[in-house]
Write a structure and sequence with these properties.
Layout: H1 2-42, E1 45-51, E2 66-72, H2 87-91, E3 130-135, E4 151-161, E5 169-185, E6 188-189, E7 202-207, H3 209-220, E8 224-230, H4 246-267
Antiparallel strand pairs: 1-2, 3-7, 4-5, 4-8, 5-6, 5-7
Length: about 270
């Protein structure tokens, strides 16, 4: 009987020791994980825009001058330029207000005029470019899903004098501009856009002075302008985009569908 009691006590003590050991190890693991989390929080890195080489004040920035590096979050300032959105378009053509060393976080205070958001829409424009607004319907703006910083082609449909029937008119659609940057949709710019399904009836595009004249004339002709959304990384330019009327649709529709099927098969 005494031996049974001693054995039972030994088992109980062993279980207690195992429990205490397990609790101790778990507590140590939790403490270690908390230290790791705190260390990661203290040393979290964030990407920032840098210069590829030392540049003096007054330098006009090009795409080759810009790069991206990671830095500890605590080392960055509020004015540090982050690689968010299409940041390169907002920097290319801007001039440095001060000399900046290579591989150091670039600050908006280093740029003449400061952050574009501080200067409104005008501050977002690249040199020699203009902002112009055009009226669009939801259907003409990809169901109002075109957003600031998107790139679009602008198509126009017009009623023009017929080339084949004297005194008659015909509908003609043509691509007016390709790869155009959207600066704003309605009153929302890249700085104010917060997501969601916004409704708007006009978009603001970044164009050259000559392109601004073309778009203005197109609207005065009471034409219907349509935006065709494109991937911002797609820089392809279609050199031959003919005007489309009923005769062209009738004669080329079969060829267009054959070409489309071949393209789809290649992608698969």
């Amino acid at each position: 009987m005494k031996q049974k009691i001693i054995l039972a006590a030994s088992v109980a003590i062993g279980l207690l020791a195992a429990f205490l050991t397990g609790s101790y190890i778990s507590a140590k693991e939790r403490a270690l994980q908390e230290e790791k989390t705190a260390f990661a929080r203290r040393n979290r890195t964030i990407e920032a825009v840098v210069l590829a080489k030392n540049l003096p004040a007054g330098t006009q920035l090009t795409a080759d001058d810009l790069g991206i590096l990671s830095f500890p979050e605590r080392a960055l300032r509020e004015q540090t330029i982050r690689p968010q959105g299409n940041i390169a378009l907002r920097l290319i053509g801007r001039r440095l207000a001060v000399g900046v060393s290579a591989r150091q976080p670039l600050q908006w205070s280093d740029i003449e005029g400061g952050a574009p958001d501080d200067r409104g829409l005008a501050g977002m424009l690249r040199p020699k470019m203009r902002a112009i607004s055009i009226t669009v319907s939801p259907a003409a703006s990809v169901s109002n899903m075109v957003r600031p910083t998107d790139h679009v082609d602008v198509l126009g449909t017009f009623t023009l004098p017929s080339k084949t029937i004297e005194g008659a008119t015909e509908l003609v659609t043509l691509t007016i501009l390709q790869d155009v940057l959207v600066l704003a949709t309605g009153q929302e710019t890249a700085a104010t856009y917060r997501g969601g399904n916004g409704n708007y009836s006009f978009v603001t595009l970044e164009v050259s002075p000559h392109e601004a004249e073309v778009l203005t004339f197109a609207e005065q002709m009471r034409g219907r302008l349509t935006l065709s959304l494109r991937n911002p990384e797609d820089l392809h330019y279609e050199k031959e985009l003919p005007q489309v009327n009923f005769d062209r649709i009738r004669t080329t529709l079969e060829n267009l569908n054959e070409l489309r099927q071949k393209t789809i098969l290649r992608k698969r």
